[in-house]
From TrEMBL:
Belongs to the VPS35L family. The gene is LOC113210229. InterPro entries: VPS35L. The keyword Transport applies. GO terms for cellular component: endosome. It comes from Frankliniella occidentalis (Western flower thrips). GO terms for biological process: endocytic recycling; protein transport. It is found in: Endosome. Residues 55-91 are annotated as: Disordered. This is VPS35 endosomal protein-sorting factor-like. PANTHER family: ESOPHAGEAL CANCER ASSOCIATED PROTEIN (PTHR13673), VPS35 ENDOSOMAL PROTEIN-SORTING FACTOR-LIKE (PTHR13673:SF0). Coiled coil: none annotated.
Amino acid sequence: MPATTTPRTSCEWISRTRDRLQENVKKQLPSEEILDHPLKPLVVTMSETRIVKLRTVGGSTTSSTRSSTPTPTQSSLAYSMDPLGALEGSDPLSQLANQQKMDPLSAMAAESWVEPVEGKRGKENVTASAGMDDGFQESWASRKAGILCKFTTSEKLSIVTSFLSGGEKVVVKAQSSVVDKVRTRLEQLDDFEEGSVRQMLDLSQQEYMGRIEQLNSELVQAWHQDQRVKALKIAIQCSKLLVDTSVIQFYPSKFVLISDILDIFGKLVYERLRTKSDYCAPGSKVPTPLPENFTPDMVPESAKETCRNWFYKIASIRELVPRLYVEMAILKSYSFLTSGEFSQGLLRLTRMIRGIGDPLVAVYARCYLCRVGLSINSSDRVYLRENFYDFLSIYNQLFSPSVRMDLTFQKVDLSTYLTLYTPALDYILQSVAHDATEKTLADILDRCKQKCNSALLFNTIMAAFKPAYIAARATQFVELLTSCDEEGFPKYLLFRTLGLCLTLADPPTEYCLQILNDVWKIVSKLTDPAQYICCAEVWVQYVAKHLSTREVNTFLGDIIKHMSVGRAYESHYSSLQTVMERVLSHANDFETLLTMDKFLPMLDIFQKESVKVDVCKSIMSHYTKHYQYQTTNDPVITNALMFICRVMHDSVNALTVEDEKRQIGNLICNFVKRVDFGRDFEQQLSFYVEARASFTNLDVIHAQLVQSVNRLAVDTRCIVKGHHTRKTASFVHACAAYCYITIPSISSVLMKLELYLLSGQVALLNQCLGQADACLKAALSLIADVPKIIEIDGKQKSSEPYIVSYICNFLSTLLIVPDSPEQGVLYLTRGLLNVIQNYSWDPQSAGRATVYLYVLDMLSTAAQESYPYHIDMVDSNDVLYGSDPKFIAELNRMCSVVVEEILSHLQYLGKNELFSKQSSLALDLLIRIATKADLSKPDLATLALNLWNLSQKHGCLDVKLAVRTTEYLKKKFSGCNQEYYAEFISRLKIKSQVK
């Protein structure tokens, strides 16, 4: 594009423009396309109107001036319209001007200021980076937060602006001619270019970010108030902030903040042009909004003229950096003019960035250009590679004396300075590498070796290209990294990045060990523990994934060696945890891992108890997950896991929260269940004895051990098929004794009750009658200790329903427990009745009466000649007593006592007017007496009839239930020929008043 000179001062330029306007305002000339600078004398004919004049409080704005640059447009752009026409608000006299005869340019100018109808599109919804390719948009959005967190400063910052101290005042001034209108617009620019600006000093980082956000709000607010000049000024001033590198370590974060504002500005311009671009589809006369995939031929000429004016004005910005950034921000708007402008414009801007002297400012300008270029979905990617190659050509400037002097002045070391380039370089190279071939990688590597052979660039290349490409050339990269120039960029970071790539993609199998050896020759020489472990935590995953357990063991030994020097491990527990986690995650054979001679020493590195416990929990979690259905009896593995579990267990104390106890307890229980010595039951029991001694603080482990020993006893019985030998009998007695001794160490009363009953049942199953009696007696003694309120599923509830259910289960066991000759008839049942009588029941609940009803059921079953179920090899009372009259008499006596207790409770319910509960209990007792007692005895028949009448006395018995009850009894007695049954049934009358 041809170069153009401009007047020396803005005053001369204004004077010349005014003269030309006065000379040509008398005649109208048609528009034509030219290839010239937009700020040369213009031919404009416009109608009378008025204009909005903007001035800042306290004076106009100013900036330093430079020579103007060539126009950013191509031959397709027409320069026949006022370059400032797109920068003002709606002309209030547009309608009047439209009614008058005007030239086509004036008509288009008038149309260009008509705002879209409110509600037709609504106000612009401004979002940064809109329209960007999805992958890169997400990539940049995810990067921004990391950049803002990483690149911070405690230094004081400054900002130069004229829009943060109350904004600008809007003064409406009527203009009498087109010349006045243009003059006013030029004065507005003078306000910015020649006035005074405000410099805010000594701002903290948070204050600076707040001011930037305030500028963002000012820009959007000015735009929606039709103050286009002010919005452009803010965008320019924000862009100028990117020239300042006085606090260099904050520059990447500053770039993120400013580029967001520029994205918003570009979005505003683009959406504004779309609202002005309604068109008529072929065959229709109704204007419709442009579709998303519109073409330039759909855009009306008025919108194109407005678009050209934006680019004209931006081309008049005199400083290079603001001019570049603002044009890049609205680059997408070229789509309104031509579809072939993007490639040329991107290359032109790429070459213009070469004029930026500061390499840090230049690289971020290139980053923004690449991001904008991707946002317009340009298929041409030549400019991306061109930007990267341009950076290669100036790479040596990063180490120039002037840069070093500036770094010395700001007290920033070279390595820190180089890290400032990584966000921009990473993005540029990732843009180049996106969907690139391996040939592109090869070309870039060759170019880097020729230009600079830089560690920084190699690190960026590995981070940008697909890991598969890097892995395929792993040996080549090892050679490059070994011989590259590492000035300012530590070499260990290169090998860390290479390790990350090789964990994501597999290198050639035959080179896996060679790659590790070549890399570790360098890494193992690192004397700084932080640098060493930084590499080791990455490469350990490579070793565990691609090499054998032998190499993993050697690698762990090297880590132990390096991290033990000066107790360096104390400062790197987090990285060491990562090492262990990655070894566990990629272990193909967990048992082999545990047998490595460096695994437990690696665990001993964690001297801090909390960290060591976390590592142990991680080990046990992986073991449980990967070996859920496998068992082990290897003594080395068992001892290793026992040691790990003991570490977790010993960390439990009075301050340990319940969730932590539950987690540790579950992991240890899973370990206990995994140990299986097969038919060697004695060895299995010895393990359980050792585990009981090792884990004394957690109830859940003791409960698991009791369960495991009971299962061991049952397995023994299954093997001998119930016929114990002297040896097996001694063993099952030992198992029963183990359970009886272990259960008291549990603190939970409910858990002890369950385990005593279970252990008693297992002992009875194995013919250990003495141990069964002991367990059942211990269970009876604990019932009184059950708390009144227990927690069930996280809710506080009464324990009576549990007690009732437990006693019912207990009674079913008592039925088949043979009486001891030394204890008397039904001694355990009598003990249970004493417990029930002494237990503090809720008097208004049905718990006590329900238990007594279950006792009646058990006693009536115990009177039968043959019980409904038995245990093999165990003679129950039906065999021992054989329906002996004395035994039956004792049963009758106990039943009488139980019935008296129930009748007493019925009387209590009646006194307290609990008639519904009284009716239900009376009916239950009636059914048991009618079906299980001898109704030939007049007193029992009379009792049954009284209970029937009592159940109906207060009308609480449902009629349907009463009818079903009588029908049930009739069916029950239908096979009996005794007359007293028929007489009893006939006397069961259903009262009519029953509800």
